[in-house]
Structures are given as structure tokens and as C-alpha cells.
Write a structure and sequence with these properties.
Elements lengths: L6 E3 L4 H7 L7 E4 L5 H6 L7 E4 L9 E3 L3 E5 L4 H5 L10 H7 L4 H6 L2 H7 L5 H9 L2 E6 L2 E6 H4 E3 L2 E2 L6 E8 L6 E7 L9 E8 L4 E7 L6 E3 L5 H11 L5 H20 L1
Parallel strand pairs: 1-3, 2-3
Antiparallel strand pairs: 4-5, 5-10, 6-7, 6-10, 8-9, 11-12, 12-13, 13-14
Helix pairs in contact: 4-7, 9-10
The protein binds flavin-adenine dinucleotide.
The site of flavin-adenine dinucleotide has 31 residues, from strand 2, helix 2, helix 5, helix 6 and helix 7.
Length: 265
């Protein structure tokens, strides 16, 4: 199928883009890499009247490294992270996860901000970044706010973003020297979304031992005090909503293997 008719705008600045979004009379959607929005337009699952192309906004390409961590513009692609064209403060977790997203063609265009704003529970960044304790910077007509990645999703394909708001950056805390991480996703074929995802981050110096289970029916499950795979699986089972026996088992396997990867890492 082909998309329904829409108008197209490529604003020159972030403020101009925000000005075009969330108006009462025009249903507008931001277009970043188009890797999720494109298929949705073609299937007519979404029919905006106006596409606001944010893919060339310089503000969304900015990168900053500070002592506390890294700020990545929301327009940074998965491929730029995979290729280490941006700095890494996570002992290799960000590049490794980026390299596991779909195919190279998707990674060349798909962006951090687009992935988080799309709100797919099975996406990689929401689980990985929630485990790292990352935050998103959001800009809209009302100003700027910052939200933990773990709190951004409200349900499957639902986020707390208002219609006039854009994700502008992702702030990732720096892991200390002795920190370790593990990441595992169950995915039958490359290019298909995951059946289960688990990420674990242990940073003793910062008092962090966090596990996150993704590919749920809604928001990721954050286990703040994860000590081992067994204890984490119990917390997950109590928190998970709507998992059948197979889903519970496959998520337990993902958690166990993420902990194994952390121990071996
Ligand atoms: C074949 C295929 C396989 C895939 N496999 C995986 C996978 O294994 N793992 C995975 O994680 N993902 C996967 N994806 C999704 C991919 O990672 C997309 O890149 C990502 O989900 C969307 O990013 P985008 O930049 O293309 O956003 P777009 O498609 O342009 O936009 C997606 C949504 O986010 C909104 N949006 C975009 N940017 C912003 C912003 N800065 N602020 C606010 N709203 C914004 C748009 O309005 C739209 O609603 C796959 C996609 C395809 C096509």
C-alpha cells in the first residue's frame, strides 16, 4: 500500500519544528529516520496531514561528553553509535546494542529519538537505556523537561510525549571503572522484533545493580535491586502483566543469559 496524502515541511530549526507540531487544526507527525513511521504510513496505520522532517536539524545531532556522562542528540543514528563515531561512556554497551538492531540499512537511518518516541516495547534502546539509568531531554512549547527513559513509556506504543514535544537528547550516565553489563535478546530472525530482552548493569562504585526486562506488553520492567537472575525473575514474574507461560519462560531465559553475560564480561 501507499501512504495517504500528506504535506511535507523541513523546518530549519528546532523551534520552527515545535511550532509546526501539536497545532489544533493540523495533525502533524515528526519524521526522523522513517524506519518505523514509513511502514506505518504505507499501511495507513497513521495518516498525518503534515510530516515535519526533523532529520537534518543540527540541534538533534549534537554530542557532548562531560565527567558525569554523555549527551547524545536524539537524531544520532544506531549506525553512528555502532561505528563509535560518537564517544562511549558505557564500557561498550551502547555500540554492542546498536549493532544488534535490525539490518545495517535500518541502522543507517534509524535514530535514538525515533526509537524511544515510537514506544515499541520490543525495541532495544528502551531496555538498554533504562538499565543504564539514562534520561531523555524533551522540548515543547511549554519549555524543556527531563524524564527517565524508564518512565517515558506509558504502555505499548504509548509515551508521555505531548503532540508538540520532541525528544532532543538522551543523557547517559558514565559507568565507573569496575562496572559490568550484560544484554541478551531472544529474536528468531534478524530484522524481527525481539520476543524477550533483558539488560543488567552492575556499577558497584555508584551503587547501581539494575536489571530491565523489555519486550513486555507495555512499559519495561525495572528491577532496581537485582542481585541474581533468580531473584530478578521473581520480581519480573510479580510485575509482568499478561505474560503466558511461554512468555514468562522466554523472558526468564533472557534474564539468566544477561546475568551470565555480565558475569563473563
Ligand atoms: C525491518 C526492521 C527491523 C527493525 N528491527 C529493530 C530491532 O531489532 N530493534 C529495534 O530496537 N528496532 C528495530 N526497528 C526499528 C528501528 O530501530 C527504527 O529506527 C526506530 O524504531 C525508529 O527510529 P526512526 O528514527 O526511524 O523514527 P521514525 O520512524 O522517523 O519515527 C518513529 C516515531 O517516532 C516519532 N519521532 C521520531 N523522532 C522523534 C523525536 N526526536 N521526538 C519525538 N518524536 C519523534 C515519529 O513521529 C514517529 O511517531 C526495526 C525497523 C525495521 C524497519
Amino acid at each position: 500500500m501507499k501512504p495517504a496524502r500528506f504535506d511535507y515541511a523541513r523546518p530549519a530549526s528546532l523551534d520552527d519544528a515545535i511550532g509546526l507540531l501539536g497545532t489544533e487544526d493540523v495533525f502533524a507527525k515528526a519524521l526522523a529516520g522513517g524506519q518505523s513511521l514509513g511502514p506505518m504510513l504505507n499501511l495507513r496505520l497513521v495518516q498525518p496531514e503534515l510530516l515535519v522532517d526533523i532529520s537534518r536539524l543540527p540541534e538533534l545531532a549534537e554530542v557532548g561528553e562531560e565527567n558525569e556522562g554523555l549527551t547524545l542528540g536524539a537524531g544520532i543514528t544506531h549506525a553512528a553509535i555502532e561505528d563509535r563515531r560518537v564517544p562511549d561512556v558505557t564500557a561498550g554497551m551502547l555500540p554492542r546494542v546498536a549493532g544488534q538492531i535490525a539490518f545495517r540499512a535500518v541502522r543507517n537511518r534509524g535514530t535514538l529519538g525515533g526509537s524511544l518516541a515510537h514506544g515499541d516495547p520490543a525495541a532495544d534502546w528502551v531496555t538498554c537505556l533504562a538499565a543504564l539509568g539514562a534520561e531523555v531531554v524533551i522540548r515543547g512549547r511549554a519549555g524543556r523537561r527531563q524524564v527517565a527513559v524508564a518512565d517515558l513509556m506509558r504502555g505499548a506504543f504509548e509515551t508521555g510525549l505531548e503532540a508538540d514535544e520532541l525528544l532532543t537528547a538522551i543523557r547517559v550516565p558514565r559507568l565507573a571503572g569496575g562496572a559490568r553489563w550484560g544484554y541478551y535478546k531472544v529474536c528468531r530472525k534478524i530484522g524481527e522484533l525481539a520476543e524477550a530482552v533483558a539488560a543488567v548493569v552492575h556499577d558497584p562504585e555508584r551503587g547501581v545493580y539494575r536489571a530491565v526486562v523489555g519486550a513486555t506488553h507495555g512499559s519495561p520492567i525495572v528491577i532496581a535491586e537485582a542481585r541474581d537472575a533468580g531473584a530478578a525473575a521473581e520480581v519480573m514474574a510479580a510485575a509482568a502483566q499478561g505474560f503466558d507461560d511461554y512468555e514468562t519462560q522466554v523472558h526468564e531465559v533472557a534474564l539468566r543469559r544477561a546475568f551470565q553475560a555480565l558475569e563473563q564480561g
